[in-house]
Amino acid sequence: MADIPFWQRKRLTEMTATEWESLCDGCGKCCLTKLQDADTGEVYYTDLACRQMDTASCRCLDYERRQQIVPECTVLTPENIGEFHWLPLTCAYRTLAEGRPLPDWHPLRSGSPDTVHDAGVSVAHRTIPANQVPEEEWQEHIIYWVL
């Protein structure tokens, strides 16, 4: 049983906090500003990143204090993962919740945090901080390449 990786032998709710956190592939997609159509409920991604996201590495500048700095920061947990239908199909949390295997480029499979970037799955170097764009211009930043 020890030869089987934890993400293949455990349910999301059975994982330790460390295991749960290691599922994040570092793509940065969850840190993009998303717009929701009030009529249809459809969610659109923009190329506007949270002001706390390092746009090169796609990592939070202060992960431990992210909710104090950005109160609207989304915190994914095994208990609430089903609420986040907007997560991209590539997200490991969504992937495992839907019973799909982790892709080869995922850092837990490849052993390197760079493979998510090398595979072109991350938003590295393709975003701008949302606080640099007036909110009334956000619609002009809707992107489709993220999906």
TrEMBL record:
InterPro entries for the chain: Puta_zinc/iron-chelating_dom (IPR005358), UCP006173 (IPR008228)
Transmembrane segments: none
NCBIfam families xref list: PRK05170.1-5 (NF003501), PRK05170.2-5 (NF003507)
Similarity comment: family membership: Belongs to the UPF0260 family.
Name used for this protein in its record: UPF0260 protein SAMN04487962_10637
Record lineage: Bacteria, Pseudomonadati, Pseudomonadota, Gammaproteobacteria, Pseudomonadales
